Amino acid sequence: MITVIACTMRSSCIDNVFENYDRQLWQDKQMIIVLNNDKMDIELYRQRASQYPENEVRVYQLPQKYMLGKCLNYAINLAEDGLIAKFDDDDYYGPKFLSETARAIKQGWASIVGKHTAYLYFKSKQALMVFRRGREWSYRRSVKGGTLVFKKSVWKRVPFPEFKKNGTDSGWLGRCVRRGFRVYSVSKRHYVCIRRKNWSSHTQKKSTLRYMSQCRLVRRTKNYRPYVN
């Protein structure tokens, strides 16, 4: 069983959260959504969740004052034993995302996998780019937070830090590595980190031009999906 954990503060991302989950070809899955904004309407999400078999998709709301780590720990505690996949509410997850990451864990490569090399799409520039190219299929000390997939048993030994405003994922990964867990970077495919024109609205407050300067252009396009799956 893979449990997708989606913590969200943006009502505008509701369709993206459900579509990313629905798109996955991996069948043995569930999803827990945590609303982390006091103004969000939980009934809208529960109505969508009711369209799935009982308990396949569960929705909870936590106070806005809670940091990401506390929301993640709350959700993971409710998940079945097995694998945990952390989905960001505003990124794109291709149909084979869960399949690729789950197989890497099941084949024994590591207890934590993700993508160190990743596609980024800059909406304002219609630019699909590669970040940290050439670091696929290798052991790394870090992967992008939105691509984390790991055994729940890892989390039982190393929960997420609950009071960090920034760097929740990197802080957790660092603690895991220090505890002896290996982190494996799979391919860059099946995932795209989406960067909006208003870059200050992102958790990672890096300007578009600065971020693009650290990437390599794949192509200018309005539709990136055919090139990433």
Automatic annotation (TrEMBL):
Chain ranges of the Glycosyltransferase 2-like domain: 4-114
Name the record gives this protein: Glycosyltransferase
Keywords: Transferase
Pfam family, one: Glycos_transf_2
Keyword DNA-binding found: no
A GO molecular-function descriptor: transferase activity
CDD domains tied to this protein: Glyco_tranf_GTA_type
InterPro entries named among the record's database cross-references: Glyco_trans_2-like, Nucleotide-diphossugar_trans
Transmembrane domains' residue ranges: none
